[in-house]
From TrEMBL:
Residues 51-142 form the Phasin domain. Residues 1-33 are annotated as: Disordered. This is Phasin. It holds the Pfam family Phasin_2. Residues 1-13 have a biased composition (Polar residues). Coiled coil: none annotated. The lineage of its organism: Bacteria, Pseudomonadati, Pseudomonadota, Alphaproteobacteria, Hyphomicrobiales.
Length: 154
């Protein structure tokens, strides 16, 4: 290491402002207060968002319960209609007097049941689609709202 030889001078009366401890403390306090205020705002926003998410989930679960009941009732109604049609058909089969009448009755029954099954399947499909839309709507709405809030200003 080499040593620099020469004079060293200190500047005592420079044109720089004097350090004032009270201003430094005041500035530090202002910065801390701003930090606390921002933290409070962030916590409040986080709390608000958490409440909105909780409400969306509660709404989703309630809607799932409701639509599940609707689907179950629809399926029970279909099963009941099919069972009643089957019993009615059995009653009609008991009164058959010839093989041709049996074949005609059985063919008509099967044709009706196929049509009825297709109608029931379409109704159930429509109900299931509606149920899926209804169940996903609260979460979808909450997600879209969150995206709008976080979208950068154009």
């Amino acid at each position: 290491m080499s040593k620099i030889t020469g004079k060293t001078e200190t500047i005592e009366n420079a044109d720089s402002p004097a350090f004032e401890q009270s201003k430094a403390v005041e500035q530090a306090r202002d910065v801390a207060e701003q930090g606390i205020e921002r933290s409070k705002e962030a916590f409040s926003k986080l709390n608000s968002d958490a409440e909105a998410t909780q409400k969306a989930f509660e709404s989703t679960f309630e809607m799932a319960k409701t639509t599940s009941n609707e689907v179950s009732l629809n399926m029970i109604a279909s099963l009941r209609a099919n069972a009643e049609a089957g019993f009615t058909h059995l009653e009609a089969l008991v009164t058959v007097k010839s093989p041709s009448e049996l074949l005609e009755l059985q063919t008509a029954f099967l044709h009706k049941q196929i049509e009825k099954s297709a109608e029931q399947a379409k109704a159930l499909q429509a109900l299931m689609l509606k149920a899926a839309e209804d169940v996903s709507k609260p979460i979808k709405d909450a997600f879209e709202m969150a995206l709008k809030e976080f979208k950068p200003a154009a």
